[in-house]
Amino acid sequence: MxxxxxxVPKPSKPSSDNRNGEHxxxxxxPAKNLDFSSWFSDxxxxxxxVFLLVATVAALFFLRSAGDTAALLCFEKTQSAAATASSRxxxxxxxxNSVRPLGHSAAASPYASFRSDRWIVVSVSxxxxxxxxxxxxxxxxxxxxxxxxHTPPDWSLKGAIFLSLEQQALLGFRTVDFLPYDSxxxxxxxxxxxxxxxxxxxxxxxxRAEVVGADLGKHFDLDLAGExxxxxxxxxxxxxxxxxxxxxVNPYVHFGQRSVWPRGLPLENVxxxxxxxxxxxxxSGRQFIQQGLSNGLPDVDSVFYFTRKSxxxxxxxxxxxxxxxxxxxxxxxxxxxxxxxTIFHTQAFWGLMLPVSVSSMASDVLRGYWAQRIxxxxxxxxxxxxxxxxxxxxxxxxxxxxxxxxxVNVGRLIKFLIQWRSQKxxxxxxxxxxxYAMAEEGFWTEQDVKFTAAWLQDLLAVGYxxxxxxxxxFDQYKGAEGFLFIQDNMILNYWNLVQADKTKxxxxxxxxxxxxxxxxxxxxxxxxxxxxAMVKKVVSNFPVHFQVSYKESMSEDKLIICGSExxxxxxxxxxxxxxxxxxxxxxxxxxxxxxxMFFLAMDSPQNFDSGxxxxxxxxxxxxxxxxxxxxYTAKVPAVYPLEVHNEPEFIKLIRIMAAGDPLLMDxxxxxxxxxxxxxxxxxxxxxxxxxxxIQGTTAVEISSGxxxxxxxWCGAHISWDKTGGNQVASVPPPGSLPRVEGQGVKVERxxxxxxxxxxxxxxxxxxxxxxxxxxxxxDWMALQGVNLPLAFTGQEAIWQKVFQGxxxxxxxxxxxxxxPAFLAWARMGNxxxxxxxxxxxxxxxxxxxxxxxxxxxxxxxxxxVSTSGVQNCxxxxxxxxxxxxxxxxxxxPASEHWGHICNDMQIYLAGPTLALGRMLLLGLVSKISxxxxxxxxxxxxxxxxxxxxxxxxxxxxxxxxxxxxxxxGEYGDITDIxxxxxxxxxxxxxxxxxxxxxxGAAIYKAMSKxxxxxxxxxxxxxxxxxxxxxxxxxxxxxxxxxxxxxxxxLDLFADVKPIWKTSSQFYGVxxxxxxxxxxxxxxEMYGILDAISSGPxxxxxxxxxxxxxxxxxxxxxxxxxxxxxxxxEMAFRSQKIQPEDHNxxxxxxxxxxxxxxTDSQLSKEGWIQKFPTLExxxxxxxxxxxxNVPQPHLWYSNEEAxxxxxxxxxxxxxxxxxxxxxxxxxxxTLYSQxxxxxxxxxxxxxxxxxxxxxxxxxEGAKNLSVNKNERRQYEWNARTQVTxxxxxxxxxxxxxxxxxxxxxxxxxxxxxxxxxxxxxxYLSRSLEENDNFPLEEWRKDxxxxxxxxxxxxxxxxxxxxxxxxxxxxxxxxxxxx
Length: 1377
Hints:
Blueprint: E1 2-5, E2 23-24, H1 36-42, H2 44-64, H3 79-88, E3 118-124, H4 130-136, E4 142-147, E5 160-163, H5 165-169, H6 187-196, E6 201-205, E7 209-211, E8 235-239, H7 251-254, E9 278-283, E10 289-296, H8 302-308, E11 327-328, E12 341-345, H9 360-375, E13 382-391, H10 410-419, H11 427-440, H12 446-461, H13 473-476, E14 482-486, E15 491-492, E16 515-519, H14 526-540, H15 544-553, E17 558-562, E18 566-570, H16 571-584, H17 591-602, E19 617-618, E20 638-640, H18 647-657, H19 667-673, H20 699-712, E21 717-718, E22 726-727, E23 746-749, E24 753-756, H21 761-764, H22 771-784, E25 788-789, H23 795-804, H24 823-827, H25 840-859, E26 866-867, E27 874-875, E28 883-884, E29 887-888, E30 900-901, E31 925-930, H26 932-935, E32 946-949, H27 954-971, E33 977-979, E34 986-987, H28 993-1010, E35 1015-1019, H29 1021-1025, H30 1032-1039, E36 1047-1051, H31 1064-1067, E37 1071-1075, H32 1089-1101, E38 1107-1112, H33 1121-1129, H34 1139-1142, H35 1198-1210, H36 1212-1215, H37 1219-1225, H38 1235-1246, H39 1254-1263, H40 1268-1281, H41 1307-1328, H42 1335-1350, ...
Parallel strand pairs: 1-23, 3-4, 3-6, 4-5, 8-11, 10-13, 19-20, 24-25, 24-38, 26-33, 33-35, 35-36, 36-37, 37-38
Antiparallel strand pairs: 2-9, 6-12, 7-13, 8-9, 10-12, 11-13, 14-18, 15-20, 16-17, 21-22, 27-30, 28-29, 31-32, 31-34
Organism: Cocos nucifera (Coconut palm)
Keywords: Hydrolase, Membrane, Transmembrane, Transmembrane helix
Transmembrane segments: 44-63
């Protein structure tokens, strides 16, 4: 079965089949480029001459230096030569614990007490230059100048510390003995001096460099504090490592200069001048070595210098792209580094050592490659930065002879380093081991092995603490909840560990034969006694709290052996675990003894989550002929041992494991693995089995293809948990799957996009979701074929960071963001502050969640729709009441003097107390009319009223651009499609098409400044909800304010009121045919299947159609699965289908009713529901009413509903196991006449289904809180959203009440029932007393009750009670007999 896209436009992103999560290359500003092809042809004779020169010099040097171990031009060493070299090199023996600290000698006494965190280290051979004087003035940095034999004896510079040869000799450093007198490599002394005097950062520089702007902090990342919390750091662009053979890169290409290459780049890589197609991303915070670029004269080699110089030796002035982003190097890929523009953080100070046995122009390059390899051992990496310095080319000849150690050996060195591995225990031991290995390979000599030993000892002597080495996984995954370790031949059934306590230690202390106590006194085996002695020694060196914990659980005469080798260390114990491992040192304690020792030291066994692993299958003495199928089970956390010896066995294992995780049976993946002759045992004959193959261009296509097969070949139904869940009982077991006959079925998308979500779904349905619920939803999207989902979570955290960039504090934003349950409307400017303020915990939590959401969407091949950042508002500043720039504000609160700065890029209003820099003088604003004012009591503007900054103001664009760039910084360049709903139920200040056009153009300009490929996606609801304003001139002005192809409109209500028919297909603008269907997340039964099954086809096939997709735009989800199943399928349908055919497996045909809505039915005061006649059968009908009370609405015949109920109940005994059936059975009795009693009965019925409980909604809210205040706030938000919004008076309620009502057990009984009871009480009394109904008294009572209920904290059940079918039958008999 093949599922493909047909007419998909050229994607703005690469396919997510790139499983390593790569992203499109960021667009870089054009830089002055030196065209490589033209340069090559112009300089061909020079290149040939230089290469001949290199070859000649190499040959002469090789002949002259044969036998000289310093000659690094040996092209390949023979095995005998390697053995000979090895026999000549002694491996240094160092007693690391015996290295004594160095004091301060008399010669250095002037600086004995001097300390500085930041040092610039240079080598000086001449009198101070202007550049050096500028370096001495760099604020916050201490300049350290290191002299050599060429340095004038009277060298002096104000602000600099100078160390002459004599002073260097008196410092007591071991390394001094190895340093040549006339070389810049003497800087190694300076590095040690700086470390000794408090260095946390060292800028390795030279005396020709001028820091651009005299501010290193402007260019480099100087503050990496808190790298342990990597998720708080912005993402950093990283070179893709998709090609494992690519081991070195030319960073100059990334920064706009394709024909320039750095010194140290292998000449064979000079021709690699193509721009990057893709980059990956990582969290910043561990770029411990940072290489900057140099404008003017960059770091180039002699080959470049000689061939690129004109005959007049005109000075170079090469410029790199200042706007190109910094870029990191992944492990396995290297870049040339130098010693004149590089920042080293304290974690990488060991990497400052400049080798002494190689030529001066090779020393820093070899150091850079050597340091990069060691950096990987501690989870660090190198990053390259845009131009940070400017160097003037002195137009002097470059010393080719000084590069003799580069051009032949550097390529081989890189390959060697990438392949090098070490088993040494500490970082310094690994550094020494690598230096020794490099000498063995002839990259440098034994002299540098000895120098490395001296360097490392000097580091310890000056107080440097070597970074701790441990498996890099701890450093790479700082955001992980914990780390699970398992041995080979163990199968992990991860699905059984989801509910385990991830804050506790897990180990197999409750597994028989795994956790064994060995008495040492009675055990005669010497091995156990030796192990016991080493354990005793290690424990005695533990910190006291570890010793106490261990000895409370274990006596000295016993030893614990843990044999299963599966254990879990939560993040909070990682530091302790690392420390304990370090204390073992070189002792040869077996890991089966060391691990339980660590666990007993970290915590008491009674605090372990022993139940997490207690049920594992542990069979260490498995018989040789015992098959794994006889003892493997998917119901336990792990199985040991389990070996598979061939691919058929592996497939068999996966099939068995799929009982725990059905997604393991990814059919396409299995087909790639299994040879055709033995294949997946699906449909089989006696001689042959068949393969069910699903192919597609992305994971979404494959997932939707799987869904199509399960639905049409296996009779399965996959829905939300609340509407039936995954009904897959009809799917045959593997080996019996139905065949797809012939050549299979090819299903193509007739239009490229399948859109999902309304902008308010995030509040009505998603607001309290955690990642566990989100991942289910995203997978459901993939099965439905959704490839264009809205991704709005966490945007408030982005806004906070953007506003901080404009000097707006977090406190200032308290009245800007709405509460968690009202964020959708705050984002659109319909309200502000209601339900807030947002806590920092909420902002951080949602940002982390969004990163998970986006990662999953990208992984599946979806294109997320992000927010554009041009539709938010904030109310901030004190002004004179009621006036601003000639506009009078009729919404001004009586008790406050505020300027309202609201909605859709209006952002800022100037005023005397606003600390926004240049914004103080800006702010021509216009008032926007909002529907929210109509829903408040007496038009109270406390939570609404909107103003718009004039689109001609440059700030309009600046803020929008800043928002998009901040998003890219957080999430990466993952999308080009941005949602912006400028006037969602807000009216512009004028209907002038010119103004509307300028506003649209400004919004798009802000988007495109942040992303040059931006596409504006806009909900077309405004054209339905405010058709009186958006007439053809206004519509055309807005739609044509953006280049055609750069806007997509969602025809949001196309299932009822299609705008495409009346707007000449949106005047040529691409649009998506959408079904709105649901309002407020109400739980009701309706759906116009005939419109859904034909509408998209009619639109697509119409003349001059501009339709590019279909979409689900319901306000709330988890209801009416039949409707959404059909609508999702229309993304793959090219022909109309008959609803009755599509739903032939459903027992009862519910009437398809049209929620038709006409403009004439819209009242000027708002949409008030009325009693419709049964003949209308409309989902929504509106008319004005004088009563401010809720009005009922019916959209189906009671007679038909009762008939359907009876059919359901008759079939109930057969379908009682179907979640879909019980779901509908618990709804259909909701509409009856005995009101108060009926409410209680309905509540009882709803209580019998887990999916209709108020408690689930409230507990979801509370579970996201971290303290009592958040808990109260979130619960209030949850209660208020489903009842009554906004403030009220004692006798006048908000008009926005019951819009998001829900049929939930608990809500009916505790909220609606008392309200109705109060009403009927007043009604009865008025009838008895023959008096008018006391409307105000009744309002006073129910408004007071509503307020108290919203502020309540009583708990409601989260577990169903009762039998839904039995209760339904009882109620049917009660009401319908």
